[in-house]
């Protein structure tokens, strides 16, 4: 069963993501993945748990995770669905900011390090409030610090030349918000790989949180169409057209609905 927002906030981000992963792929052995996370946490605690200085403990974990264990961002296949499934990230030691960040945060919690997730518009960041006078931000893709100048550059690259960095962009995010974005990334990757059955699970799960979201229903319609479920695809498209008549996609979908309805078999 999908978790509620309250339940997600009570889990670590990695545990919430693992629950999401299992909802998308029930063949995942959750206990095995949980044990793998615990092994990493045990080793980190054994090596660094007795270090009283928080800054040195954090630096030790950063070196352990990115250099000794060699977790790294997947530069070559960034959009691969493997990068959104925790068990694949643990076995490949490759991921994207949100999946690597979730594992790193799991270790930080074991080591009592005050590191929190930030759902920056372009990717997940890690925020440390007690290291210096002002917050320090790490990029979980490579474990390196990120300057305000770099963050402004990312924002402009994403939203255009007039985008401005706002304090709200750097606020700590709750787990449901991050898991929601994670789910969207997973759906996009699965669609790109034409794994439509699993992408449909993404869409159905997203709709448990926002049942009337016309854009999610539109996406579900596209997935149904790829699965040759033309009647339900047309119904989803019609809902989107009704809810968002001024959206540029609405006119295209009207033509698509007409084609889908014409393709329905005639019963005698």
Describe the model.
InterPro entries: SirB1_N (IPR032698), TPR-like_helical_dom_sf (IPR011990). This is Tetratricopeptide repeat protein. It comes from Salinivibrio costicola. By secondary structure, the chain is an alpha+beta fold. The chain folds into two domains: 5-170, Roll (C8orf32 fold), CATH 3.10.620; 212-262, no CATH class. Helix content is 59%, strand content 7%. It is built from twelve helices and six strands. The protein has helices spanning 5-10, 13-24, 30-48, 54-68, 86-92, 97-110, 148-159, 175-192, 196-209, 214-226, 230-243, 248-262; strands spanning 72-73, 94-95, 115-119, 124-128, 136-139, 144-145. The strands form two sheets. The protein has a four-stranded antiparallel beta sheet. Strand 1 (72-73), helix 5 and strand 2 (94-95) form a beta-alpha-beta unit. Helix 2 (13-24) runs parallel beside helix 8 and helix 3 packs across helix 6.
Ordered list of secondary-structure elements with their pairings:
Layout: H1 5-10, H2 13-24, H3 30-48, H4 54-68, E1 72-73, H5 86-92, E2 94-95, H6 97-110, E3 115-119, E4 124-128, E5 136-139, E6 144-145, H7 148-159, H8 175-192, H9 196-209, H10 214-226, H11 230-243, H12 248-262
Parallel strand pairs: 1-2
Antiparallel strand pairs: 3-4, 4-5, 5-6
Pfam families: TPR_9, Transglut_core2
Protein name: Tetratricopeptide repeat protein
Family: Belongs to the UPF0162 family.
């Amino acid at each position: 069963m999908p978790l509620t927002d309250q339940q997600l906030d009570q889990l670590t981000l990695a545990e919430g993501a693992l629950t999401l992963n299992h909802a998308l792929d029930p063949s995942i052995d959750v206990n095995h993945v949980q044990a793998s996370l615990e092994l990493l946490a045990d080793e980190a605690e054994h090596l660094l748990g007795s270090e009283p200085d928080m800054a040195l403990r954090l630096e030790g974990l950063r070196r352990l995770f990115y250099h000794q264990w060699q977790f790294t961002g997947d530069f070559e296949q960034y959009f691969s669905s493997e990068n959104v499934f925790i068990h694949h990230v643990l076995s490949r030691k490759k991921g994207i900011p949100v999946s690597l960040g979730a594992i790193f945060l799991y270790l930080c919690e074991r080591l009592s390090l005050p590191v929190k997730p930030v759902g920056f518009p372009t990717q997940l960041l890690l925020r440390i409030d007690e290291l210096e006078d002002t917050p320090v931000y790490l990029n979980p893709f490579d474990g390196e610090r990120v300057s305000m100048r770099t963050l402004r550059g990312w924002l402009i690259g994403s939203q255009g030349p007039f985008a401005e960095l706002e304090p709200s962009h750097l606020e700590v995010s709750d787990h449901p918000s991050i898991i929601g974005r994670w789910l969207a990334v997973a759906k996009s990757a699965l669609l790109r790989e034409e794994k439509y059955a699993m992408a449909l699970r993404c869409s159905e799960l997203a709709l448990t949180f926002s049942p009337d979201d016309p854009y999610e229903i539109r996406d579900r319609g596209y997935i149904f169409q790829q699965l040759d479920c033309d009647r339900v695809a047309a119904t989803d498209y019609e809902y989107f057209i009704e809810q968002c008549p001024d959206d540029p996609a609405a006119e295209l979908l009207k033509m698509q609905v007409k084609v889908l309805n014409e393709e329905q078999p005639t019963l005698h």
